[in-house]
Design goal:
Layout (H helix, E strand, L loop, with lengths): L1 H19 L4 H20 L4 H13 L3 H19 L5 H14 L2 H16 L10 H18 L1
Helix pairs in contact: 1-2, 2-3, 2-7, 3-5, 4-5, 5-6, 6-7
Length: about 150
């Protein structure tokens, strides 16, 4: 019950901030797709393909060649971790899609997500971590800080 309340509060608060500060429809869709992917990943440990495809379509709207380069570097770099069974393929797809849309700013999102993973899972041994959920939280923190600062 607490987790569901946390998810609802996070989604509503972020959408309210997006509305108040008159962000674009692209930002609104992007954040809600990340909420969908993150919450789904939290419960099922799967990143929905529809979320990745939607982010890729959003990135086509403001296509930048350097973002494509960042995305490809991230994709092929993370494949090394996938082959060692350290990360899921859906997480690789989501991270690559975030790079495709956000460019180098995705590094900040990933840094926030990794920090949250370390803080929230400090005492736990050998667990499955829903990376999409932490990417959602990292993107939310980054997006709100970017708007407010």
């Amino acid at each position: 019950m607490r987790k569901s309340l946390f998810f609802v509060a996070t989604v509503l608060l972020t959408n309210l901030i997006l509305f108040i500060f008159k962000q674009s429809a692209k930002d609104f869709i992007y954040m809600n797709v990340l909420f969908f992917a993150g919450i789904y990943d939290y419960y099922k440990y799967i990143i929905p393909e529809t979320a990745v495809i939607t982010i890729i379509i959003l990135s086509i709207i403001d296509f930048r060649a350097e973002n494509l380069l960042f995305s490809l570097v991230a994709f092929f770099s993370l494949l090394l971790f996938y082959k060692q069974h350290k990360i899921g393929f859906g997480d690789i797809q989501l991270i690559s899609a975030i790079f495709l849309l956000s460019g180098y700013e995705a590094l900040f999102i990933i840094a926030i997500a990794c920090t949250l993973i370390i803080i929230l899972n400090f005492r736990k041994d050998n667990i499955r971590i829903p990376m999409g959920f932490y990417l959602m939280l990292g993107a939310t923190v980054f997006f709100i800080c970017d708007i407010l600062i």
